Amino acid sequence: MPQKTPRWPAQSGAETDMRPRSLDEFLHKARIPYTTFRHPPAFTAMHAAAASHVPGISWAKTVVCMADREVLLAVVPAHYTVDLERLREIAAATTLRLASAREVAELYPDCEEGTMPPFGQLYLQRVFVEECFVGDPEMVFHAGTHTDCIRMHYADFADVAQPVVGRFSSPRRESEPPVDRSQRSIRELPPAGV
To answer: Is the pLDDT of residue 14 over 90?
Structure first.
């Protein structure tokens, strides 16, 4: 039985282009410098950053939100979580929630689940970017698949995406599981200074 050859890393010559054609056309028309590369399949932003040897702070995770009846993209570092209330305020929306998996699949049929690029103009959607990206020499993000990535300077991204810049996320604490602190007894609290 023949073995399957993985789609990564990118091979020169007869490489199969798995990125959405609309993304390639969009970037070509924008005439901004960028590079593409492949990494082993990764299904979370942190795993993609690690597989790409990119610091989590430079990996731009695209989070799809529903603000009232409008779809918007929130772009945050891989290890950050979106503060939905703060983003709702910045977006001047009455309500804001994460899009469901079904909504995301319907909105981005040309992308694998969770790999939509942060270019709202491709889909006629507003983009909000976490201010910590401003001025960064590079940002890296999914290019429509679990193996394809794009790397570009933040300034080039901003020129094309025209994002609203704000502070609406914060680093996630991986080492601490969610705990209802109101239920902890005094004996469970760590000693002072630890």
So the answer is: no
| Gap between the Cα atoms of 33 and 111, Å rounded | 22
Residue 87 lies in a domain: yes
The predicted-structure confidence for 41-92, as pLDDT tens digits, reads as follows 999 999 999 998 999 899 999 999 999 999 999 999 999 999 999 999 999 9
141 in a domain, yes or no? Answer: yes
Give residue for tokens 């929130």: 74
**Closest listed residue to residue 82, CA positions, set 167, 177, 157, 139:** 167
Other CB atoms within a 10 A radius of the CB of residue 98 amount to 14
CATH code, domain with 129: 3.90.960.10
3-state secondary structure 153-171: CHHHHHHHHCCEEECCEEE
Coil, helix or strand at residue 186 = helix
Minimal CA–CA distance to 147: which of 62, 48, 56? 48
Q: Which two tokens stand for residue 187?
A: 């004996």
Give the dihedral of Cα atoms 46, 89, 85, 141; nearest 10 deg: -10
The CA-to-CA distance between both ends of the chain, in Å, stands at: 56
Distance from CA of residue 110 to its chain's centroid?
16
Domain that holds residue 136: 38-166
Q: What is the pTM of this model?
A: 0.78
